[in-house]
């Protein structure tokens, strides 16, 4: 009751200005909440898109590194008779493995699902096994230990199923990642 008595003491003009001020403050409050919500939604969308684009970029780098590993391996065989060039391609092959491992390490935290991280770990393990099996052959290529490039190619082709397995895992990971985006 005291509020009603207090309000009767004010003029109609003052009461109207007070009501308009309250409505304007309520409108400002609702508008501020709307703008805050819009900024929050924009921030979430930006983070989501940035993470998705980053993960696809790292996946592309991983695919490129795997291709470079294979390309440098083939170039070592082609340059079999030229030990200087074979050594240069062996260094490039080693560098490609470094890029592959760096891309895998950068991609791991960007993957949204545990199954995708498991696929990536399997891919890295397969490529580590491929590297372990290929390194002695790379040393033989570098030291011209094979009778010919054709024999070297035939020997190295025995590792093709290991690489194909890793490539299949990478393809499955890429398909899975693109379907979640």
Question: How would you portray this structure in words?
Answer:
It is a single chain. The chain is mainly alpha-helical. Helices cover 87% and strands 0% of the residues. It has 6 helices and no strands. α2 runs antiparallel to α3 and α3 packs antiparallel against α4. The longest helix has 67 residues. The mean pLDDT is 87.
Q: TL;DR of this structure?
A:
The protein is mainly α and 181 residues long.
Supply database-style keywords.
181 residues
Question: Low-confidence stretches at least 5 residues in length (pLDDT < 50)?
Answer: none
Overall 3D shape: rod-shaped
Order of helices and strands: HHHHHH
- Measured on Cα atoms, how large is the radius of gyration? 32 Å
Ends apart, CA distance between termini: 61 Å
Count of helical regions: 6
Give helix % range.
Answer: over 70%
What can be said about the biggest beta sheet?
A: none
Mean pLDDT across all amino acids? 87
Architecture blueprint of SSEs:
Elements: H1 2-9, H2 12-78, H3 83-107, H4 114-142, H5 149-156, H6 160-180
Helix pairs in contact: 2-3, 2-6, 3-4, 4-6
């Amino acid at each position: 009751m005291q509020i009603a008595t207090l309000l009767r003491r004010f003029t109609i003009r003052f009461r109207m200005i007070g009501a308009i001020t309250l409505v304007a403050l309520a409108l400002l409050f609702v508008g501020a909440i709307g703008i805050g919500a819009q900024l929050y939604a924009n921030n979430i969308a930006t983070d989501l898109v940035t993470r998705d684009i980053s993960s696809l970029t790292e996946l592309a780098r991983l695919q490129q590194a795997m291709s470079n590993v294979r390309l440098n391996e083939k170039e070592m065989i082609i340059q079999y008779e030229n030990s200087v060039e074979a050594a240069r391609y062996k260094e490039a092959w080693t560098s490609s493995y470094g890029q592959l491992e760096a891309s895998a390490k950068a991609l791991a935290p960007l993957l949204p699902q545990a199954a995708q991280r498991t696929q990536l770990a399997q891919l890295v393990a397969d490529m580590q096994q491929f590297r372990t099996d290929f390194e002695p052959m790379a040393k033989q290529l570098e030291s011209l230990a094979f009778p010919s490039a054709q024999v070297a190619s035939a020997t190295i082709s025995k590792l093709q199923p290991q690489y194909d397995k890793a490539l299949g895992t990478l393809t499955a990971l890429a398909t899975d990642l693109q379907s979640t985006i």
